[in-house]
């Protein structure tokens, strides 16, 4: 079964709706340059609204180690997602499971990243959009993802109308959606989330 993460959650109502729709994980953005950015106070309220067995993911972009550590002290995150140019040593510094994001445009050799981030829980493939660190709504040319001994997560421009095709082509471990289920940046459309989850489960 393909897992589902809904990213860019900014309020408790949307978090509860994502969980009710069947999302396996939700993502909170701790990157000030994003329209979906949160501080630790707001993030704690959202995390407290989630039911058990929903994975809580915190997204960071080139953050200083002290900033990540401070966020972890205040927010009960299960997994860290590093979306920038973070080194392997920084990613593993916090003793938490982590996902490393690769920004791509088409098929490429993933082995160097697998070797460099050998202890990552998984690698997330997102569209390389100039000046944007995710949530751009752009997709890349999907290809059959290789078996690299590590879960591969597909992101970038996914929505209910194309996710079944993306899964059929790429065969990912999981899919990650943000702008494809929104009314506006940071505000989720509950019907879109439900349709997205239903399409994924239908594959």
TrEMBL record:
Enzyme Commission identifier(s): 5.3.1.24
Keywords: Isomerase
Species per Swiss-Prot/TrEMBL record: Acidithiobacillus ferruginosus
EC top class, as a word: isomerase
Protein name listed in UniProt: Phosphoribosylanthranilate isomerase
């Amino acid at each position: 079964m393909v897992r589902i993460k809904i990213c860019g959650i900014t309020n408790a109502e949307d978090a509860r709706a994502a969980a009710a729709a069947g999302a396996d994980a939700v993502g909170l953005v701790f990157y000030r340059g994003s329209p979906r950015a949160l501080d630790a106070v707001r993030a704690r309220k959202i995390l407290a609204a989630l039911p058990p067995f929903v994975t809580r993911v915190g997204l960071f972009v080139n953050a200083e180690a002290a900033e990540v550590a401070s966020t972890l002290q205040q927010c009960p995150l299960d997994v860290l997602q590093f979306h920038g140019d973070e080194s392997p040593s920084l990613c593993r510094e916090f003793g938490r499971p982590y996902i490393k994001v690769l920004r791509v445009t088409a098929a490429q050799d993933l082995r160097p990243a697998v070797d460099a981030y050998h202890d990552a829980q998984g690698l997330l493939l997102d569209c390389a959009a100039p000046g944007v660190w995710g949530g751009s709504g752009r997709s890349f040319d999907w290809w059959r993802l290789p078996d690299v001994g590590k879960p591969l997560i597909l992101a970038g421009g996914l929505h209910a109308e194309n996710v079944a095709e993306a899964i059929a082509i790429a065969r990912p471990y999981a899919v990650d959606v943000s702008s494809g289920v929104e009314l506006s940046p940071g505000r989720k459309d509950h019907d879109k989330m439900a349709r997205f989850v239903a399409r994924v489960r239908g594959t």
